[in-house]
From TrEMBL:
CDD domains: MFS_NepI_like (cd17324). It comes from Halomonas salina. Keywords: Cell membrane, Membrane, Transmembrane, Transmembrane helix. It comes from the Bacteria. InterPro entries: MFS (IPR011701), MFS_dom (IPR020846), MFS_Efflux_Transporters (IPR050189), MFS_trans_sf (IPR036259). Pfam families: MFS_1. This is Transcriptional regulator.
Amino acid sequence: MSMTARSSTPSPAQQTAAWGAVFSMSLCVAMLIAAEFMPVSLLTPIADGLGATEGQTGQAVSISGFFAVAASLLMTTLAGRLNRKWVLLTITTLMLISLALMASAPSFGVLMLSRALLGLCIGGFWSLATAVIMRLVDAEHVARALAIMYTGQAIAAAFAAPIGSYLGGIIGWRGVFWILVPIVAVNLIWQWAALPSLPANQRQTFRSLMDVLKRPYFARGIAAVVFCFSGAFAMFTYLRPFLEGVTGVDVTMLTAMFLVLGCAGFLGTWAGGRLANRHVVRLLQAVPLLMGLVTLGLLGFGERPVVVAVLLAIWGAMNTVMSIAWMAWLSQNLDDAPEAAGSLVVAAIQAAILLGAAFGGSLLDHFDIQATFLGSVALSALSLLLVGSGRRLLKVG
């Protein structure tokens, strides 16, 4: 079986099973995204509950990014020739443990431990996800399968934050994380039943990672990825303090704002799945441009809730497109080395989330929320400059 496509035409039963596996991965994505970013909507109560500042809590939440970077770089090498199905099942089990630790954390240190463990899960899953998708479905269906998998991201973005902020006011932030535990347990069982055996085709080494990174178009793409995602999360991590302090929303309105942002992600998923095959460069250009303009718009019109809601809808759509577009770029331009390229792209994304959140938190603690958002705009602008016309991001031949 090739890493880029199936070697023969699958039977209808095999096709059905393959798409069932794709949907099980979509639920896993939803749980990973919810676990990683739900604390954004609970940032203030978590900080109050653990006796920390919002900036410190935002950076502690983002510690998962540091461990995700390490896991994404090490996963395909340490996994060796282990069957990828069992690697993914192990990752889901660790996510279950990390959520239980998060919900019961008695101190800031235990919170950081739970986030570190979650980071290992995030990096490990995403480093393998695109390569696994490329093995589950035919090459012409990869963009569609990626869009389905990222529907899990859209669902989490749509409902995790608003539900988290709403339920957090009723059952507390710990109760919110306890709710996720049984869902992840169900997902573990589904993955076990749905995923086919996925023997490793070849052993990845650090040399194979470096060989991919030496490709000029890929190195440029990695730099653009870092600035794109760090710009997005320098703003997103501290969106709640902005909405509370500048827009002046209460918990109910805050929930509605996050719901608007998240629901727009479904539009982004649809657009990404439809356009990524033929217009990936246009998407890579549109994402940092529109995200930067939205952030400037929030600074200019942050006191007008209706305008803020519209701007957040645009941002939410671009947030989903961002992931689909970069993974589609990977599948189209690095189809000969999807695991190695996937490891490096995921490492870049997670490093960007970590750096973006840390950068934004530092600006928030030392200056104000306006400085945080301006920093986000600057990072998005650098990403747009690196993408440029897109020609230097494409494989030749």
